[in-house]
């Protein structure tokens, strides 16, 4: 996820030492090294619902992704590379997912999802249910969060969503059901969550403040031209610049917004 000064997304997707495209082939911290079961790219231009481009093939070989990332400019975009945890490789299962002005992407899984899928689906609001297009646990989490108040209070809605999933899983004898890092946005702010029931969550990193990076690397031209509001949130650092990346705390969420960003503890809530 990138938020800040408008850039061409190729700067993040292709041009860093450990870019997202490199991670799709050589992930260092993920559950799998290879992430070739599809990809997605979502972006905001400030006046309309976000654009969305997804494909079922690997990101590293998609010529249209390279074309788009080289030619458009945006100050807020999501990018995702997928390694399926069991659901079909199809376009509607690729992240990010979109509902009106909201984007959502997820790294992780709901354990034994097929066993509790029906019961979870019954908690999705009837008016939202027709908008679900795919079959993934990740999209289910999105629509549960929307049903539980994402549009008015994202941290509370995600906490209630996780609490609901954990309760349903417990009723079916499923231990440690939730593994997630999640990013979501309404186009103005971004929320990122790191949590797992077992408290051993997938990796999540965020970039340090730009003024600190300028002080550390005064010769880097990229840091000199980005605004102080610029932030990048990633599963793995995009390069090996010492001091440039900080690991998100376990069981926490952060808000990237105009003005002061914030990090707080995250705990599931009963529904």
Automatic annotation (TrEMBL):
It holds the Pfam family GATase_4. InterPro entries: EgtC-like (IPR026869), Gamma-glu_amide_hydrolase (IPR052373), GATase_2_dom (IPR017932), Ntn_hydrolases_N (IPR029055). Residues 1-237 form the Glutamine amidotransferase type-2 domain. Keywords: Glutamine amidotransferase. This is Class II glutamine amidotransferase. It comes from Actinocatenispora rupis. The lineage of its organism: Bacteria, Bacillati, Actinomycetota, Actinomycetes, Micromonosporales.
């Amino acid at each position: 996820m990138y938020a800040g000064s408008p850039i061409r997304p190729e700067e993040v997707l292709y041009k860093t030492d450990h870019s997202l495209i490199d991670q799709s082939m050589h992930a260092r911290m993920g559950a799998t090294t290879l992430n070739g079961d599809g990809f997605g790219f979502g972006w905001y231009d400030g006046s309309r619902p976000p654009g969305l481009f997804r494909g079922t093939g690997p990101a590293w070989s998609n010529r249209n992704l390279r074309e788009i990332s080289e030619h458009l400019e945006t100050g807020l975009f999501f990018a995702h590379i997928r390694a399926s945890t069991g659901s079909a490789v199809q376009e509607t299962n690729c992240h990010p997912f979109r509902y009106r002005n909201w984007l959502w992407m997820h790294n992780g899984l709901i354990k034994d999802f097929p066993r509790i899928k029906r019961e979870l689906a019954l908690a999705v609001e009837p008016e939202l249910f027709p908008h679900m297009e795919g079959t993934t646990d990740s999209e289910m989490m999105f629509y549960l969060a929307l049903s539980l108040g994402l549009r008015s209070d994202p941290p509370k809605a995600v906490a209630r969503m996780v609490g609901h999933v954990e309760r349903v899983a417990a009723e079916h004898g499923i231990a440690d059901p939730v593994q997630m890092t999640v990013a979501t946005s309404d186009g103005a702010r971004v929320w990122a969550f790191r949590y797992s029931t077992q408290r051993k969550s997938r990796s999540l990193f965020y970039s340090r403040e730009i003024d600190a990076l300028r002080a550390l690397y005064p010769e880097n031209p990229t840091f000199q031209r980005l605004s102080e509001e610029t932030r990048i949130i990633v599963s793995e650092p995009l390069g090996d610049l010492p001091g440039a990346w900080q690991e998100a705390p376990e069981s926490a969420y952060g808000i990237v917004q105009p003005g002061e960003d914030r990090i707080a503890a995250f705990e599931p809530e009963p529904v």
